[in-house]
Design brief:
- The chain has a seven-stranded mixed beta sheet with strand order 3-2-1-4-5-10-11, sandwiched between helices. It has a four-stranded parallel beta sheet with strand order 7-8-6-9, sandwiched between helices.
- It has helices spanning 16-29, 40-46, 81-94, 105-127, 133-138, 164-185, 200-209, 226-239, 263-274, 294-312, 335-350, 354-361; strands at 3-8, 33-37, 51-53, 98-103, 143-148, 188-193, 213-215, 245-250, 278-282, 321-326, 329-334.
- By secondary structure, it is α/β, with parallel strands linked by helices.
- Bound molecules: 6-O-phosphono-beta-D-fructofuranose.
- Catalyzes the phosphorylation of D-fructose 6-phosphate to fructose 1,6-bisphosphate by ATP, the first committing step of glycolysis.
Length: 367
């Protein structure tokens, strides 16, 4: 039977468990042996108890559990060749030659590097007699399939990443809660949300909660004096009778000179210039926690199934696929192309080409 390994890597995201469950159960139904690699890439390097054979019951109840039960880590050893050599040896010893990785762009790039180095790693292991010549012959190729698990929704080539919708919902609930206390006291709140260098969570939360102003990395506020522009908007809304002011700031927000825009600074501006009683709330890791929304369970399940199918139809000459979703259809496209496009967003921002950054992220919000 074909042996497939599945692991989760990078920051956890709600729906990762549903993805692992789908890979395990659909893999079994296709006659494969499925192994969960615990603790992300660290588990690949450590081997032993971290690589566990899964059966139908191993993933019972996982659909509704947040986080990732098989664990995750931001792993340093795997970034070294020595670490990857050890990982390759562990996989060969377990007989695993296909890996489904659920993580963000960094984790998926790591997976593709591992695959492209694989032949050299196998040669070295054979030369050092860490694996037999027969094993080297049998395991000449590694198949990698990527699933995007990240609350940030920061991967190109896919409309939405596993976990982002749940996280957005959690943010909305938090902002709703803040709204009632803000209204009671006629206060202003500056709410910092996650997303790393991506403004999707902030922008969507702004739309979904009716925030007064949103700061995101891809489209910094126009003009040199964003402070005045923001105050004008907040003041106008107050003049219209609004009793609260809510500003949502992405953790990666910047101004047009690429300087970070921090919640504390926004608070000071609102306090000093408008005399608003202002508080800062950093939502933090509550945004990553809790039970996945139905959407993420479904997305992760359908994509997990597609990931197994992608393993089964893979060949050594085709590039590693990334499972995405586009116009409500599960897709499978070249992983590294998606990563390159994602990096292009960062490049556009660093070159202050914000229209391009927005275009790449989401054309419907481009100028
Ligand atoms: O990528 C997910 C994410 O939650 C980002 O939004 C955030 O910048 C980062 O991870 C936080 O990482 P950590 O959990 O290591 O603090």
């Amino acid at each position: 039977a074909r042996k497939i390994g599945v692991l989760t890597s990078g920051g956890d995201a709600p729906g990762m468990n549903a993805a692992v469950r789908a890979v395990v159960r659909y893999g079994l139904s296709k006659g494969c042996d499925v192994y969960a690699v615990y603790e992300g890439y660290q588990g690949l390097v450590d081997g032993g108890k971290c690589i566990r054979k899964m059966d139908w019951k191993s993933v019972r109840g996982w659909l509704s559990i947040g986080g990732t039960t098989i664990g995750t880590a931001r792993c340093m050893p795997f970034k070294t060749r020595e670490g990857r050599l050890q990982a390759a040896e562990n996989l060969v010893k377990e007989g695993i030659s296909s890996l489904i990785v659920c993580g963000g762009d960094g984790s998926l790039t790591g997976a593709d590097v591992f695959r492209s180095e694989w032949g050299g790693l196998i040669d070295e292991l054979k030369q050092n007699e860490r694996i037999t010549p027969e094993e080297a012959d049998t395991y000449q190729h590694l198949t990698i399939v990527g699933l995007v698990g990240s609350i940030d929704n920061d991967m190109s080539s896919t409309d939405i990443t596993i976990g982002a919708i749940t996280s957005l919902h959690r943010i909305c609930e938090s902002v709703d809660s803040i709204n009632t206390t803000a209204l009671s006291h006629s206060r202003a709140f500056v709410i910092e949300v996650m997303g790393r260098h991506c403004g999707w969570l902030a922008l969507m939360a702004g739309i979904a909660t009716g925030a007064d102003f949103v700061f995101i990395p891809e489209r910094p506020p126009a003009g040199d004096d964003w402070e005045t522009a923001m105050c004008e908007v907040a003041h106008r809304h107050r003049e219209m009778g609004k009793r609260k002011t809510v500003i949502i700031v992405a953790e990666g927000a910047i101004d047009r000179s690429l300087n970070p825009i921090k919640a504390k600074h926004i608070k000071n501006i609102l306090t000093d210039r408008l005399g608003l009683d202002t508080r800062v709330t950093t939502l933090g890791h509550t945004q990553r926690g809790g039970s996945p929304a139905a959407f993420d369970r479904i997305l992760a399940t359908t994509q997990g199934v597609e990931a197994v199918d992608a393993v089964l139809r893979s060949s050594p000459d085709t590039p590693s696929p990334l499972i995405g979703i586009s116009s409500n259809k599960v897709t499978s496209g070249p992983l590294m192309k998606a990563v390159e496009l994602t990096h292009e967003v960062a490049k556009a921002i660093s070159e202050k080409n914000f229209a391009r950054a927005m275009e790449l992220r989401d054309p419907q919000f481009a100028e």
